[in-house]
Amino acid sequence: MPIRKIIHIDMDAFFASVEQRDNPELRGKPVAVGGSRARGVVAAASYEARRYGVHSALASKIAAQRCPQLIFVKPRFEVYSAVSRQIREIFYSYTDLVEPLSLDEAYLDVTENKIGMPSATIIANEIRAKIQQETGLTASAGVSFNKFLAKIASDMNKPNGFTLIPPDKAEEIVAALAIEKFYGIGKVTAAKLQSMGILTGADLREKTEEELVRHFGKTGRYYYRIARAQDDREVQPHRIRKSIGSERTFEVDLTEEEVMLPELERLAKEVAHDMERLQTTAKTITVKIKYFDFNQTTRSKTFLGEIKSADAIFTIARDLLRTPQLPAYPVRLLGITASSLLYQHDKMEGYQLTLEF
């Protein structure tokens, strides 16, 4: 097979950067999107906040302790989604082989591309320049011959950076990489590897495939291959999401139904908006309830018919909130998830997948 040319684009502190772009008073200041000083979780942090150890998924209370001058702003997911669509249009002007991982990052295969440009480096930097010109935001890019290396590369020179990992340098770079920097190795796995004396890619490469499988199951085969800079996964332009959801943590615990229902209605609108964007319907709706003591429960209902409107989602979520009874304890978080998704192309009669050679 010919060597692929893969780009990984990663927006820099995406949610926080959008807020700083739209509100000049936030520029140059530590910003946390989501949560509040009293409660909640940080969804994103600006680079000014990250210097204090503030990061996504950090409890807001801890974030405020680490950075007393931290500014909390409410997330605006509709705005982030709109900017994300704008960025993806730039991607599609170069290739249809785009695999979004989230609103703020994606893989692109530009081995063959729409502008006939042989250099992935030139394409990556053109894309970064267009993103900044059209959105006022910066992005970092990594270029290499497989997805694992492109992802690693995009993180090496953030923010607003570019890194190329060519074939002749790949094994050397992977060997020197700290094990916690490997994409696909989380904190728990990294700690386990470190306890085994595996601190770098070079250490990982010394282990046999059988040994890694014994300790980590099938994933051990993946670790064996990436230690050798090997990754044969293709860019998948049609990744299918299995569920669509939205949730919100409240600054003050909710105890009354008349306060919970408007929140459920907002969540239903957000879920319906994403379903419309993805041209999908659902058959299962789930409501998530997290109480003041962090205990949580879920309530679900599956239907024979298809659900897609915000009104329908809200009505179902309202009924689930009341069944078997309204929450008996103060509620700190509510969420709605739509699943058992059916995409528009799944409903086309006689639809058949084809392969182009």
UniProtKB/TrEMBL annotation:
Span of domain UmuC: 6-186
Keyword set, alphabetical order: Cytoplasm, DNA damage, DNA repair, DNA replication, DNA-binding, DNA-directed DNA polymerase, Magnesium, Metal-binding, Mutator protein, Nucleotidyltransferase, Transferase
Location relative to the cell: Cytoplasm
Co-factor binding details: Binds 2 magnesium ions per subunit.
DNA repair found in the keyword field: yes
Function: Poorly processive, error-prone DNA polymerase involved in untargeted mutagenesis. Copies undamaged DNA at stalled replication forks, which arise in vivo from mismatched or misaligned primer ends. These misaligned primers can be extended by PolIV. Exhibits no 3'-5' exonuclease (proofreading) activity. May be involved in translesional synthesis, in conjunction with the beta clamp from PolIII.
HAMAP family: DNApol_IV
Protein name in the entry: DNA polymerase IV
Native source organism of the sequence: Pontibacter amylolyticus
Gene that encodes the chain: dinB2
